[in-house]
Specification:
- The radius of gyration is 21 Å and the shape is elongated.
- The chain is mainly alpha-helical and 109 residues long.
- The protein has helices spanning 8-48, 77-99.
């Protein structure tokens, strides 16, 4: 394995690369947070409209883990738009991770 000289130019490049990676990680974290907010709005909007009938199935304080798939067949155009946005955010997160060699252990998914 070839060792590279430890010059100020090499150090500067490494710092820039490190800062860039940190920015990518922060971007991914922010996208994950935005996706979670969008998903919460999907649940709230669907449960106040087309899926209102499910409200009686839950008691106050009950928890249920909805997934995006639960809402993909909803007819409400507003929900459809948000589902599409949520899917796009998820795809972008995983694309950025793949492009930058970032593992799931490095971010809070």
């Amino acid at each position: 394995m070839q060792a590279y000289p430890n010059t100020p130019q090499i150090q500067e490049i490494l710092i820039k690369m490190s800062n860039h990676r940190i920015q990518i990680l922060e971007t991914i974290e922010n996208l994950v947070e935005a996706r979670d907010i969008i998903f919460t709005q999907i649940v709230n909007l669907a449960m106040s409209g087309e899926m209102k009938h499910l409200e009686s199935a839950f008691d106050l304080g009950d928890k249920y883990n909805f997934t995006r798939k639960h809402f993909e067949s909803v007819q409400d155009v507003n929900v459809k738009k948000l589902v599409s946005l949520c899917k796009n955010a998820e795809e972008t997160v995983f694309s950025l991770m793949n492009l930058n060699g970032i593992s799931e252990n490095e971010v809070n998914l």
